[in-house]
Recover the amino acids of this structure.
């Protein structure tokens, strides 16, 4: 009989304890905030700054030239001869959304012109030069 009285006093708790769920959510958020910058792949270069507007995202091919003049197509290193011979096929495989050329600011102008000329010789006319926007001061 005592059991019946005790259950009458305590009642049934129908609430969900969400404190532990919030802790897990916050932990996952911190993990994603830390790993998101690491997940951004690409070749590490210092882009030149210019008064430019942000590019609208397209699904184009990204060609990167690092400070030593090495050519990378979507993180795959190619020699100039390999690049000139395969750029058209790579661009068509990517869907023809244009080509974005990212060149380090230390790369000589002649090297950039040489790469753009190879693209134009292969029929690629939609080439966007990528730069960092200037700091508004």
């Amino acid at each position: 009989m005592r059991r019946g009285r005790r259950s009458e006093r305590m009642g049934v708790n129908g609430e969900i304890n969400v404190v532990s769920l919030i802790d897990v959510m916050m932990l996952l958020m911190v993990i994603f905030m830390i790993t998101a910058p690491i997940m951004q792949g690409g070749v590490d270069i210092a882009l030149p700054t210019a008064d430019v507007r942000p590019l609208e995202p397209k699904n184009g091919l990204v060609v990167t030239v690092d400070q030593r003049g090495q050519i990378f197509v979507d993180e795959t290193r190619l020699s100039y001869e390999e690049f000139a011979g395969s750029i058209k096929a790579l661009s068509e495989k990517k869907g023809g959304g244009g080509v974005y050329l990212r060149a380090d600011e230390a790369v000589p102008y002649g090297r950039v012109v040489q790469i753009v000329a190879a693209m134009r010789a292969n029929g690629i006319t939609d080439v966007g030069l990528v730069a960092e926007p200037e700091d508004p001061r």
About this structure: The chain has a mean pLDDT of 82.
